Structure formats: structure tokens, C-alpha cells
From TrEMBL:
Top-level taxon in the UniProt lineage: Eukaryota
Residue ranges that the Swiss-Prot or TrEMBL entry lists as coiled coil: none
Leading EC class: transferase
Protein name in the entry: Branched-chain-amino-acid aminotransferase
GO BP terms: amino acid biosynthetic process; branched-chain amino acid biosynthetic process
NCBIfam families xrefs: ilvE_II
Taxonomic source organism: Stephania cephalantha
Cofactor: pyridoxal 5'-phosphate
Keyword Phosphoprotein in annotation: no
MF terms (GO), sorted A to Z: branched-chain-amino-acid transaminase activity
Amino acid sequence: MGLGAKLRRVRRQAFELADVCWDDIGFGIIPTDYMYVMRCPRDGEFSNGTLEPYGNIELSPSSGVLNYGQGLFEGLKAYRKEDGSILLFRPEENGVRMRMGAERLCMPAPTVEQFVDAIKATVLANKRWVPPPGKGSLYIRPLLMGTGAVLELAPAPEYTFLIYVSPVGNYFKESYRRISSPPIESWVFVHEGLAPINLVIQNDYHRATPGGTGGIKTIGNYASVLKAQSEAKEKGYSDVLYLDSVHKKYLEEVSSCNVFVVKDNTISTPAIRGTILPGITRKSIIDVAVSLGFQVEERLISVEEVLDADEVFCTGTAVVVSPVGSITYHGKRIVFEQMVGDMFIVGYPMEMAELGLCPNNSTLFLQDYKW
Ligand code: COI
């Protein structure tokens, strides 16, 4: 056996893996070993979380979450490094965002410390489900929901914080692998499954309204886009790009991710004004883009502007950084090249640090817990 093969074997033996066909995983639920559960009365505090075997939960038919949608979710990922250790991507940011959403929905929430500890415990308990390097990630789904029984419209009397996980591959199904010439010499471009997506802008449905809950990760925001999304998919599009509901003119976001528009050396993204989810990948990309020397603007972006862009890409935990291949508006299809977004695809989130290509301040996005 050659040295390379021996090394690969040693590395493989360094960590135990679940019996999964790692080359075939997409973005679907794969049940894992454990979930984390922590409960709290309305006026109390969360404490005594436990790891339980992953499985169905018992819920009152009159629970707040089932009847009035009093629920939030988060999404974050754990990645496996070559040496077997596991990285989490900015988990405290999710903890902070969950607390903001909980405040808006009148729910108690775990502290950021409790949140991060619970994430670590859940990932650790399920560590054999973290895919091998380069084969995907472990998607972590924290939920916060009103599980107490309530009939009148009021906050539920009891809350449950639950975390489950699933190994995932690419969110958008079309997958490809290509090597393209880098705009910055010495950068190695290897894309895995990040095919350009085709979006449609339509004005019959809107995702959020001013004063509503578009800026938090409440479950209702996602049920409300299912119809627009499924109509778009029936017509062959990957997803919908929503416009604002007042002027019906300014970009908001895609059903499951934020959007960025590139023109010349300027990268713009819709400003956070209560109707757009403050994405953690969005925030990270802004920081990295600034440190790479791009002009970054958070502002109103009109639909005309996006149609005239050099490049468009989407960001989110699930979609990572997805290049947009085309946008269709009023039956007209505009096709985009991919250049700037590619840089982030290459660099995001681990390879950048590992190849030593990232600007110093972007390394802090990585939390290497060295389990
Ligand atoms: C995520 O990116 O984690 C999301 O919440 C999107 C989800 C709708 C899959």
C-alpha cells in the first residue's frame, strides 16, 4: 500500500462514521442518534436540558405552536476537518438571533451560553453523523416553541427548546463539480454541487410586511412562502426572489436565503429593516467582502438594478453561497456570470482558514472546539 493510501486509511480510522452513503446525501432528513430537549414554564427559566434518543415528541393538541404558530427555528452547521475534529460556524450568533425572535413572539429563550452548550452537546452526541471532510456537513436545527396548552390567543404556559441534527449535502438539487480559473492567482477553485440557481421574481406573493415578523426566524415565515415556491418549482425555477410588499419594487430575499447583487466593485444587499432575515452567512460575507477590498452597501435595491447586475448570489446556512444563474421577471430572463460569489464559495467557510487565504478577521468565524 502506498504512503498516500496508508495516510488516508489512518485518517479514516481516526473517527467513527455512521453507515451513510456520504456521496449521495442531499438536503433531506436523516434520523440521527440523539436530540436535545430543555423545558421552561412561562415565567421561569430554561434549565436541566437532556439528551434523548431522537424520535417523535408528544404535544398537546392545544399547544401554542400548533394553534398560533408560536415557534422559532434556527439553522447552523458543523463541519468535519481532515484530522477528525469538528468545527461549528458562529453558533453564538444563532443564540443571539433566537433570543431576538423569542422576544418578538413573547417566549422565554435559553441564554446564549445555554444555547451554545446545548449545540455542542448535541453535536458531540451525534458526532458519527458529521460527514467526512468535503462530503457535506451536519445541519443543526434548534427549535423554540410554545408547547403548553392554550385556547385563548395568549402566550403558551410552557416552552420547549429542542435541537435535532441531520447530515446534509447541497440544498439546491442540481449538482455539479467544476474547476474554473481563479480571479486571484493561487486560489484553487473546486466547486462541489454549487450549481447556479434560477430565480423568478413575482409580485403576487410577498414574504413579509413592515411591522410583521419577516426579520425573525419564525416558522410562519416559511409556511407562507410554500405556495409561491411550489408554483415557481412547477415552472422549472429553483426558487422565488421576493419584492417588498409596499412599493413592490425593492428586493427582499429568497424563500430560504439572503441575496447579494454585484456591480463593478460594489457588492450590495438589501438592508435589514424588519422584513429581511439578518442572516449569519450574510453578515459573514459582508465582513469578508469588506476585508477583501470590495465596496459593500446595505440599502434598498430596485428590481431594475438587479436586472442590470454583473452577478447575483444567495447566502444562507442551508444554501451556503449559491450563485444565481438567471432571474426571470415579467417573462424576461436575465442570465448572469459568476465571478465574485465564486470567491466566497471557494473560501467559505473552512478552506479559507485552512489554506491560509483568508484575511485575519475572517478566521474568527470559525469556532474550532477540537472535540
Ligand atoms: C437555513 O439556511 O438554515 C434555513 O433556515 C433555510 C431553511 C428554510 C432550510
